Amino acid sequence: MQIGRVAVTAALTSVQDTRAVLVGGPGQRGRRTLPGVICSCCGEDRDESTVTSLLCHDEIQVCRICVGWLNGRVGAIDVTPTLPVVDMDEAARFCEAAGFEVNRYDDGFAFVQLAGQSVFDLDLIPDMSPEANHAGCYIITADVGDWHARLVAAGLHVTPIEDMPWGMREFTLTDPSGNNIRVGRSTSDDAEEV
Ligand SMILES: [Zn+2]
């Protein structure tokens, strides 16, 4: 029943066609210094950064895994893009430097996750030209600034965070195979910030 709350749509189409929904930024890992919260759904003791309350009943708290499970129950889908890479070892090192977990399926395919949630897969296409690669994915997260700071700290090249005309605050991380991994959130969410 492990259903991470990551919904990624499309893969090898244009970047703007792809969307990933990722709740909780990578900076949240390792923060578990406070007692956890008991999820009202599964009863597990969860990191408080992965638990939220219902809008109408704030005494009911639900963890990220159960939200993912509920998402499936209401007909939502999870989609994981497949990114082409020219060198699997290089791609794996890049992803790990970016804070993702890489699980190899075989020499030519790997699953990339964040805190147990599927983010994208890697498919070895050794004769692809990175310059000609226009694939990518879009990770939507509330923590754009945290993601940016972490990737910069890891020494990875990222574009500055910008508010784009299409209503997203985002930046782009480009991997060695030319995949554009864009990270952002809707600027319309600004009104919800405190
Ligand atoms: Zn739960």
Describe it for me?
This protein is α+β, with helices and mostly antiparallel strands and 194 residues long. It has a single domain (6-31, 75-192), classed as 2,3-Dihydroxybiphenyl 1,2-Dioxygenase, domain 1. It has 3 helices and 14 strands. The strands form 4 sheets. A 6-stranded mixed β-sheet has the order 1-2-11-14-13-12, with helices on one face. The chain has a 4-stranded mixed β-sheet with strand order 7-10-9-8, with helices on one face. Strands 3-4 form a two-stranded antiparallel sheet. It is globular. Zinc ion binds at residues 39, 41-42, 44, 62-63, 65-66.
Global structural class: alpha+beta
Biggest beta sheet attributes: 6 strands, mixed
Mean pLDDT over the full residue set: 84
CATH superfamily: 2,3-Dihydroxybiphenyl 1,2-Dioxygenase, domain 1
- The global form is globular
Give me the CATH fold name.
2,3-Dihydroxybiphenyl 1,2-Dioxygenase, domain 1
Each distinct ligand: zinc ion
Query: N-to-C SSE series?
Result: EEEEEEHEHEEEEHEEE
Low-pLDDT parts are 1-33
How many domains is the backbone divided into?
A: 1
Distance between the termini: 34 Å
Indicate the radius of gyration in whole angstroms.
17 Å
Which bin fits the share of residues in helices?
10-25%
In terms of DSSP E residues, the strand content is 25-35%
What is the total tally of β strands? Answer: 14
Output the CATH class name.
Alpha Beta
